[in-house]
TrEMBL record:
<dbReference type="InterPro" id="IPR040338">
    <property type="entry name" value="At1g67623-like"/>
</dbReference>
<dbReference type="Pfam" id="PF23310">
    <property type="entry name" value="TPR_27"/>
</dbReference>
<dbReference type="InterPro" id="IPR057136">
    <property type="entry name" value="At2g35280_TPR_dom"/>
</dbReference>
<protein>
    <recommendedName>
        <fullName>F-box domain-containing protein</fullName>
    </recommendedName>
</protein>
<feature type="domain" description="F-box">
    <location>
        <begin position="13"/>
        <end position="62"/>
    </location>
</feature>
<dbReference type="InterPro" id="IPR001810">
    <property type="entry name" value="F-box_dom"/>
</dbReference>
């Protein structure tokens, strides 16, 4: 029979204690940005991670993808607590969602612009796109087209932003009368990018970003967004 060698017991040090806390916090923030459900699972795995996951930096970066923009029925205490913590931690997605409702539902232009700008300054790309759209819808078309051109140049896929916005508008009551009035036409009489229908296919969103006339792109987006109005 083979004998096992016995080693003296050492003081146990958890692997987590060997990693700088800032690094663990950063890793957890990346997990939270990808999936709030995964973060919740990690928090249940050990006390140490649970404590680190309570850092406001983690809540600031948490994804809200699994939460609808408007809750039509009361949500459980755990979810409400999570959303409250995200708001307290200045999660830009919270500002963005509030601004969406402020503008498209409550028609409060000034408040919406403040929140979209705040979210955009925190790196929220979709909020930056919404600043352009608000500019276009409020009649400041020259400036709005200029802003769209700039963010396109900076590499933002405005077609994908538009698709995301339309999906979001389908979740809320769009009651802003600006959407009933707003029309934008390209003075260069381009017609290549005139929308064929109000239902834009994914491929068309992908195709339009590169070299298209920005005014035509903006006109197309405005037409699709206005079609979401409930007025
Ligand atoms: Zn054009």
């Amino acid at each position: 029979m083979r004998m096992r060698r016995r080693f003296p017991k050492k003081n146990k040090v958890s692997y987590l204690q060997t990693i700088p806390r800032e690094l663990t916090t950063h890793i957890l923030s990346r997990v939270a940005a990808s999936s709030a459900a995964d973060l919740s699972s990690i928090k249940q795995s050990c006390q140490e991670l649970r404590e680190i996951a309570e850092d406001s930096y983690v809540y600031q970066h948490a994804s809200l993808d699994k939460f609808p923009i408007v809750e039509w029925s009361p949500i459980c205490e755990k979810k409400q607590k999570f959303l409250n913590k995200c708001k307290e931690s200045s999660n830009p997605e919270i500002w963005y969602r509030e601004a969406l409702l402020d503008f498209f539902n409550k028609k409060d232009y000034a408040l919406a612009l403040r929140k979209f700008s705040k979210a955009a300054e925190a790196g929220h790309v979709q909020a930056l796109y919404l600043c352009c759209i608000m500019m276009l819808l409020s009649g400041n078309q020259r400036r709005g087209v200029g802003m769209i051109a700039k963010i396109k140049k900076d590499g933002i896929r405005v077609g994908l932003c538009c698709r995301k916005l339309i999906e979001e508008l389908r979740q809320i009551w769009v009651l802003n009368p600006l959407l009933s009035q707003s029309r934008l036409l390209c003075s260069k009489h381009h017609n290549r990018y005139r929308p064929r229908t109000n239902n834009w296919s994914g491929e068309e969103y992908e195709d339009e970003d590169e070299d298209d006339c920005t005014t035509c792109v903006a006109a197309r987006h405005i037409k699709l967004i206005c079609a979401c109005s409930h007025l």
